[in-house]
Amino acid sequence: MNTTTAQAPSAAAGVSGPKSKRKINAISPGSNLVVNLFFIVYCCICIFPILLVVSASLSDENAITLHGYSIIPKVWSTAAYHYLSFDLHKILAGYGISIATTVIGSLAGMMITALYAYPLSRADFEFRGFFSFFIFFTMIFGGGLVPWYLVYTNIFHLKDSLFALIIPGLLMNAFLVLTTRTFFQQTIHPSILESAQIDGAGEFRIFFGIVLPLSLPVMATIGLFYTLAYWNDWFNSLVYINNDKLINLQYMMYRVMRNLQFLQTNAQSGTAIGAEEIAKIPNETVRMAMCIVGMGPIVLAYPFFQRYFVAGLTVGAVKG
Amino acid sequence: MELDAQLKKNRFSFGRKVLRNRYLLLMMLPGTIYLLINNYMPMFGTIIAFKSVDYSKGIFHSPWVGFTNFKFLFGTSDAWTITRNTLLYNALFIVITPIIAVTLAILLNEVRGRLAARFYQSIMFLPYFLSAVVVGYLGYSMLSTEFGFINTHVLVPLGFDAVAWYSEPKYWPYILPLVYIWKNIGYSTVIYLAAVIGIDNEYYEAALMDGASKWRQAISITLPQIRPIIIILMLMAVGHILNADFGLFYQVPLDAGALYPTTNVIDTYVYRALLQLGDIGMSSAAGLYQSVVGFVLVLSVNLIVRKINKESALF
């Protein structure tokens, strides 16, 4: 952030040698070390529980029973993943539901958001005030869970349908609408729109042909926000889903945490694995392996998408 | 007669206005329909808090009961517990979030290696992307009575007794804020860091001329410069002080009944009353209580901020 370059480093930094690149207002090497150490410790705290779960999922069940979860497995074992593989069809079905709802929901959400945000960004849109208030009001007042639930179950009958994982609550985020509007206002110059209008382009043509292609950064960002919201959602499942065929990955993890037997329902009723075998299932490590299976995609994809998030959060003020 | 003509003219001009903006209005249609269904219908649906819902008659034809549901709600000790828990936890979060996040942002801005700073920020931001279910698992790996890291690797080796974390409510007023900070502070830090980076460098150069220390610069330049964004974020949080983070209070304590005295908040209460007990009257009363008080709070806090500094007000 210091724009002054190191033209006279030794003069400003005092003790630093002539080769020092230290900027004028930079902290001393000692303080820098302390600050770095502080952040290293803090970062370790941030990822410690994640590493703990990874380690637990790769541990031998007996070692866990004896020593508890440790940061490096006392005895390595992949038995937990082996047991999970018996239920591979269930896990894959969960992935399928999660991927389907995430893709459909994010694409629809991005479209609805951009289509609502664009007119709001236009100074010449005569209903701008009304529609701005219409969405802003939803940010400061809400009906609460009960009427929201009754609207979707009693009027629209979405209970136990794939739509229940896509539509309620997640499809349109007012905060993202306002972010997108701000982006349009800042990037799309009115003169571009005017010249397109003079050339005879209609509003939809202008939107899809000019505005959207110019707005790929913000579309990527809100797309990521929606993707994450759908991928991480378990609340809609908790509220609307009783059908075992519609269980997404997050909800599966939730059910496994509450009762490991959830995965073994087939085994219990079937003849392939007897009660004795069930007793031998490494409960604790299977549970942790389930967490890894569910958390994996987000953590693996994180390095690639996180900077778009940072960019999106700083797109601009979102004053209503 | 004149009024009639005026009205006719107004209607005419309104119709023309709609016609002039028809394509832009068409674009707004999907979003408007969604907001009507997802947000406005539930707002009008709050009237069920004044009804005794009878499914056989349907919601619209169920009898009105006035404030009976509210009387029942506030007659229970739950009403006090959930209000207290929600308010105290959220108040704590509202106060500590900016303190920690601003400190971290200022420190992060001082880290001399750009790559290092970016790396730290990425790691700190990671927990924000994990779902509450995953956080519940991570918490369990730390707190499980028999196998959890804290009991087996910290307390017992140091000679303390293992603690049954999931059945002792007294520890949760400490655990929940820690989890909250761990999960959310990266997000706030990113926002504050952007604000800190955006401050014009000339201020610091001038301060340096006057021999201001780093501490002095942070107090006299950085904090005043980012005060508007701190106020806006705190204001938004105060407006939602009655809305608890459902995932944090439901998933992290693993919905353990023994912990309700310190983990039950309005949102979890409403959920359990509705879907576990099927008590529509009580849950809708609690929900409306939350919405109305929250709304009044937003308006009043905004009014206060407007009086102090119009620029910082939300609307």
From TrEMBL, chain A:
- Subcellular locations according to the entry: Cell membrane
List each copy of the ABC transmembrane type-1 domain by range. Answer: 95-290
Indicate whether S-adenosyl-L-methionine appears among the record's keywords. Answer: no
**Keyword entries, A-Z:** Cell membrane, Membrane, Transmembrane, Transmembrane helix, Transport
Q: Where is this region: Disordered?
A: 1-20
Return any one Pfam family short name.
Answer: BPD_transp_1
Q: How does it sit in the membrane?
A: Multi-pass membrane protein
Give the matching PROSITE patterns: ABC_TM1
- Sorted alphabetically, which InterPro entries does this protein's record hold? MetI-like, MetI-like_sf
Residues passing through the membrane, by range: 33-58, 92-118, 130-150, 162-184, 204-229, 286-305
- What does the sequence similarity comment in the record state about its family? Belongs to the binding-protein-dependent transport system permease family.
From the Swiss-Prot or TrEMBL record, give the protein name.
Answer: ABC transporter permease subunit
Species name: Paenibacillus glycinis
